[in-house]
Design goal:
Elements lengths: L14 H9 L5 E2 H8 L4 H14 L2 E6 L2 E6 L6 H8 L1 H14 L7 E5 L1 H4 L8 E7 L9 H18 L3 E7 H10 L2 H9 L1 E4 L3 H14 L1
Parallel strand pairs: 5-6
Antiparallel strand pairs: 1-3, 2-3, 4-5, 4-7
């Protein structure tokens, strides 16, 4: 799945980005504004798409002075299908969250980061997932834990066609990354979408404060 344009999984034309823009707001927009937000094709092409969609009733077109404003007709029978397609990335997040909630061994924290979290990944992009666990470096994760992560990776691929890249760290390993100022920590700070445990910044700050108090 193209994380920057999930609708392209089904709709390969400029219609996809245009519908994505319309699905994200209930406010009427001009063709020029929709073209700017869609960032795809030409302005003429965008207007042609809007006129065609308006002819089907899926998009409402209203003349306002010299311009025409458009919005998605959410009462249209096809509107729900459009909304489903434009929410694929959020549904992926919800699916990952739900799978982890069902794990026998819960992580201390898990967050999606990288291009999937930012929404700028392509069809070949990995779904990057930070997972912090309670196992020590000596004992390592148990078979049950390994099976959980493996099953999640398989499920993510079935859902999206994208591979899961699990970045697994012990609590100590996570703290060491922060203290060492590892470059990946900047990605976590910027992108993290929490799917299990405390919100990322809360989790990080708690660990740093606990270590400082020792």
């Amino acid at each position: 799945m193209d994380m920057s344009n999930p609708t392209s999984t089904v709709i390969q034309t400029v219609d996809g980005p245009v519908l994505d823009v319309l699905a994200r707001t209930t406010a009427p927009l001009t063709g020029r504004k929709i073209h700017q937000l869609a960032a795809a094709g030409s302005e003429t092409g965008t207007r042609n798409v809007l006129r065609r969609l308006a002819s089907t009733g899926l998009v409402e077109a209203t003349e306002v002075g010299p311009s025409v404003q458009y919005k998605l007709n959410r009462d249209h029978l096809a509107a729900n299908a459009v909304l489903e397609l434009t929410s694929l990335r959020q549904r992926l997040f919800d699916g990952i969250r739900g799978e982890i909630q069902g794990w026998r061994i819960q992580p201390m924290h898990a967050s999606i980061f990288g291009s999937t979290a930012r929404g700028d990944g392509g069809v070949s992009s990995d779904v990057d997932l930070l997972i912090v666990h309670k196992f020590s470096a000596v004992e390592g994760p148990t078979p049950t834990w390994i099976d959980q992560v493996t099953d999640l990776a398989d499920q993510v691929y079935r859902w999206s066609g994208n591979h899961l890249q699990a970045y697994e760290l012990s609590s100590l390993g996570f703290l060491q990354h922060i203290q060492a100022g590892e470059p990946i920590v900047k990605d976590w700070r910027r992108d993290a979408i929490t799917v299990s445990g405390p919100e990322f910044r809360t989790f990080m700050n708690t660990h740093v404060h606990e270590e400082s108090a020792r």
